[in-house]
Write a structure and sequence with these properties.
The protein is mainly alpha-helical. The chain has a single domain (22-164), classed as Tetracycline Repressor, domain 2, CATH 1.10.357. Helices cover 71% and strands 0% of the residues. It has helices at residues 2-8, 12-19, 22-35, 40-47, 51-66, 76-79, 89-115, 125-144, 149-164. Helix 4 packs parallel to helix 7 and helix 5 (51-66) runs parallel beside helix 8 (125-144). The termini are far apart.
């Protein structure tokens, strides 16, 4: 809160008056992040004509976002509150739900790819979706830990190769 007070130049009482609590302020910050830069994956899944293109864009944009110079590295939803004090468990669970929803969106896009004949009918979309979600979460952690952009792009490309192995012929 001290950092926020210093950055905004507002008294903490005014910040609490605007948001009600630290938890609500944090939820608002996550919502803003997802509506803007953090929503790159949802936009790619919606906008790209094929799953391969959607996930290629998602992996590329993830690495680019997670490694921006002069900005915190990683994904705010992945790195925030993965471990926290007992009083913050509701936020921890809420963020876990947000991550589960992102995984569900990935799985739904893969189901669509199967229906449209892009992926083999026998594709295990649950496992593939969980895998792609895990890679995206891992990219965030690796970026936060300082792994260079080039290596993260290579990792994303390996995940895309796995997706390509399930393409219908």
């Amino acid at each position: 809160m001290a950092d926020l007070v210093a950055a905004l130049g507002l008294a903490s009482a005014r910040i609490y008056a605007a948001f009600g609590s630290k938890e609500e302020l944090f939820r608002e910050a996550i919502a803003l992040y997802q509506a803007k830069e953090g929503g790159f994956g949802a936009r790619a899944l919606d906008e790209e004509p094929t799953a391969q293109q959607a996930f290629a864009r998602t992996m590329r944009e993830a690495v680019d976002l997670y490694t921006r110079p002069g900005k915190p590295h990683g994904c705010m939803v992945v790195t925030a509150a993965t471990t926290c004090a007992a009083e913050n468990e509701p936020i921890q669970e809420w963020l876990a739900q947000v991550r589960r929803q992102r995984t569900a969106a990935i799985i739904e896009r893969l189901k669509r790819a199967v229906r449209e004949g892009e992926l083999k009918r026998e594709t295990d979309v649950q496992a593939l979706g969980d895998y792609l979600s895990t890679v995206l979460n891992g990219l965030s952690v690796q970026a936060r830990d300082g792994v260079p952009r080039k290596r993260l792009h290579a990792l994303g490309n390996l995940a895309l190769e796995t997706l390509a192995q399930n393409r219908a012929r």
